[in-house]
């Protein structure tokens, strides 16, 4: 099939991917009449659209963040005709409600994966591989230096730091949507049933996860408690709170950060992180390339990340590839 025609019914633009045959945009960075949203992170889901198609969980997250949405929920695996395009959503494994957009039209299949990871996550269904003609992949960690360690081993490091000095607490920086809840559930999976203390900025999304069926266990608001009440416990907070006045009320905290970027030691040092935890909600280099080998699409479109390295890898593996110049991504970190 000629390169000029493959996926010609998809129109990537700086503000998002436009699908003329459906008259719909995927994850647009500006309000549009009709938007298909892959997941609830702010760099993909914005308010103000005329109509929104997404999973029920993503719509609930958008409602909590932006107010009521004119939304239509679509279950994983359900096919919906949007204009002349057959659209279905399948799990992306990124955060609760995250989805890949599978589109069939003109005898071709295009999959827009959004953000995704391949490792198990107790808060959301795993990534579902879908063979396709064109695969649109992220490249957040699209460099060979990014190879994430075993998640369980990183959680064990956190617990070892917690048990090393019961007079201290371990303060973990984790983003409010997805990462905080995953850290909580990973701790529960390692047998840590003790109360976990949380910053007020995490409360709303944690409550929403519970409403959507994720059993987070006992969570206690950390604000206003005596210092020693949190000694020997895990405290979760947004990264912005790690070094501000709020954290000074904690009992000699071991400052940790859960992010794929903690692989970069300079980032950890700049943020005064004592315990860098490499726990990512994105695929690492090996997982990105393994996914492309598994799917074997005719063409790969690469976006929001380190596009050049992954495009070069595709060329060396006889896959046609190009980078998309989309704007507005990575506003919400890993």
UniProtKB/TrEMBL annotation:
PANTHER family: BLL1145 PROTEIN, CLEAVAGE AND POLYADENYLATION SPECIFICITY FACTOR FAMILY MEMBER. InterPro entries: MBL, Xnuc_lig_assoc. It comes from Sphingomonas quercus. GO terms for molecular function: exonuclease activity; ligase activity. Keywords: Exonuclease, Hydrolase, Ligase, Nuclease. It comes from the Bacteria. This is Ligase-associated DNA damage response exonuclease. Transmembrane segments: none annotated. It is an enzyme of class 3 (hydrolase). Its EC number is 3.1.-.-.
């Amino acid at each position: 099939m000629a390169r000029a025609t493959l996926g010609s019914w998809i129109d990537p633009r700086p503000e998002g991917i436009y699908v003329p045959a459906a008259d719909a945009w995927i994850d647009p960075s500006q309000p549009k009449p009709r938007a298909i949203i892959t997941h609830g992170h702010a760099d993909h889901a914005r308010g103000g659209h005329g109509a929104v198609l997404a999973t029920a969980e993503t719509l609930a997250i958008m409602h909590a963040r932006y107010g009521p949405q004119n939304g239509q929920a679509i279950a994983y695996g359900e096919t919906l005709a949007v204009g002349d395009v057959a659209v279905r959503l399948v799990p992306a494994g990124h955060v609760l409600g995250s989805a890949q957009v599978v589109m069939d039209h003109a005898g071709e299949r295009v999959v827009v994966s959004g953000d995704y990871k391949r490792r198990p996550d107790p808060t959301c269904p795993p990534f579902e591989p879908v063979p396709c003609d064109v695969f649109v992949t992220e490249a957040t960690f699209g460099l060979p230096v990014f190879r994430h360690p075993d998640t369980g081993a990183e959680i064990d490091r956190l617990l070892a730091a917690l048990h090393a000095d019961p007079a201290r607490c371990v303060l973990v920086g984790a983003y409010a949507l997805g990462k905080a809840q995953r850290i909580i559930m990973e701790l529960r999976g390692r047998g840590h049933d003790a109360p976990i203390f949380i910053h007020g900025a995490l409360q709303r999304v944690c409550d929403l996860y519970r409403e959507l069926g994720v059993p987070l266990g006992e969570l206690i608001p950390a604000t206003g408690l005596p210092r020693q009440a949190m000694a020997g416990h895990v405290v979760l907070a947004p990264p912005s709170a790690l070094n501000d006045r709020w954290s000074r009320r904690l009992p000699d905290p071991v400052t940790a950060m859960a992010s794929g970027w903690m692989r970069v030691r300079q980032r950890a040092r700049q943020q005064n992180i004592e315990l860098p935890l490499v726990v990512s909600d994105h695929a690492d280099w090996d997982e990105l390339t393994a996914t492309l080998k598994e799917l074997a699409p005719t063409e790969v479109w690469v976006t929001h990340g380190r596009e050049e390295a992954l495009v070069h890898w595709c060329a060396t593996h006889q896959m046609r590839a190009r980078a998309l110049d989309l704007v507005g991504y990575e506003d919400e970190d890993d």
